[in-house]
């Protein structure tokens, strides 16, 4: 059974919906999944100043928070973050910055990694955000598994670097988004399964 950690940060819930879809599909395929959101680090006054942000933080209050051990445990890791000016969120970066001890012991290497993101606009930085996560995976010595155009569904969402949701086009996940997420997690589990065979 492949152990999959889904590690993500979400302010408004898009990333959470994407991560939840990935987890459901992985579990349906027999994987053992840890679905873990990254701890909020923004000041409470910033969170409370935006109703959707405050609502999502309240929704996640009792859900398990990502720990470095979740990566140590995993055979495969899918990481997600919304775009912030073309980069990953500071919240996800803060979590990544706690991984130094595991990195130093070589415990982040030789796992399968893939990434997902969301942005308000189509050309608002999805590729740079996904590539930022892929850069980190390279430093881990990870085996980066981009979706490429390895299935017809990738010609619909059109993102070979990972999965990206454009929230300005439709806030909720649509069939194209779900197909791309299902494709990514299936590919990650298939390749992790071959590596662990
Ligand atoms: C500070 C900040 C910066 C952002 N920068 C961008 C950006 O550069 N391009 C873009 O298209 N959307 C940008 N967005 C929009 C978010 O990426 C978008 O709302 C994302 O889907 C949020 O994901 P979430 O619902 O998981 O939090 C930004 C949002 C915030 C709050």
Rg to the nearest angstrom?
16 Å
Question: In what range is the share of β-strand residues?
Answer: 15-25%
Summing up helix and strand content along with how strands pair, one would put the structural category as alpha/beta
- Count of domain modules: 1
CATH fold assignment:
Rossmann fold
Rounded mean pLDDT score: 98
Number of helices: 9
Distance between the termini: 10 Å
Number of strands: 6
CATH class: Alpha Beta
Residues in helix, %: 40-55%
- Give every kind of bound small molecule, once each: flavin mononucleotide
H/E series: EHEHHHEHHEHEHEH
Q: CATH superfamily name?
A: Flavodoxin domain
Largest sheet: 6 strands, parallel
Which architecture per CATH? 3-Layer(aba) Sandwich
Outline, from the CA principal axes?
globular
Write a short abstract of this structure:
The protein is 44% helix and 17% strand. The chain contains 9 helices and 6 strands.
